[in-house]
Amino acid sequence: MRSLKQESRSRSLITLMDALALILVQLDVTPAQLAEISRASFVKAGAAIARKKHSPRPHIARIASLTGIPRSEVRKIIAANYIHNSGRLDQLPRALRVVAAWKTAPKYTRNGKPLTLKVIGRAPSFQALCREFSGDIPHKAIATELLARKLIRFKKNGAANCVHLNRSPVSKDSQMQSTLTYIANFMDSVSSQDRILVRRKQTIVSPKNLSVAYFQNSIASRVASFVDELPIDPKHRVRTKKNDEILDVFALVSRKLRKP
Length: 260
Description:
By secondary structure, the chain is mainly α. Helix content is 49%, strand content 7%. It has three domains: 28-89; 92-165, Arc Repressor Mutant, subunit A; 174-236, no CATH class.
């Protein structure tokens, strides 16, 4: 039987990954890409722990024993200086993999530009393109996703229905990217036990005699005012004193979700 500690750890990991996945999906990060990044991160963490306890050099066998990752892979990750190759097409979402192939595969380009493709038929066609590069996902599902992203448009070419690849639209995921950056900085600070000054979570209840909106806005404005009144990051000052200590301050007020 699993211990209560293991159950609590699993629940926390699930909560963390559920929240992270909602952001990563919208940023076109796939499980394959996350898995490769996480393996490099585990090796890096294992190296840091092994280095503290033993010697300055990363001990391959020790890291492998800590992480469960084979020694050959640990050696490769360390040799690559823990750097992840983010340009691999096989780690893109399937719809974007189709777009990348459409732009580069000789069969679907002419003079370096993607062809306008028949929807159905032999290659070069959109159906053939998807069959070749989208795996087991039907071309209709890929077309639906690309239409939602405004990456394609349909048009008539004589009697045939054709699909044209648009220029990539300007990304609108800046809010999601900002959220991911905030979470990354927050997690980095939380995991650095020697630097934590305060770590506290408190659930509060809105009084019945106040409207929910008023109560929430009041809390949010007070937290924002408190943070705004703190000294500004020294790098934004004209002069910085040598003895100044730089602190990261995180402010987060969120609604408590009720269980169904």
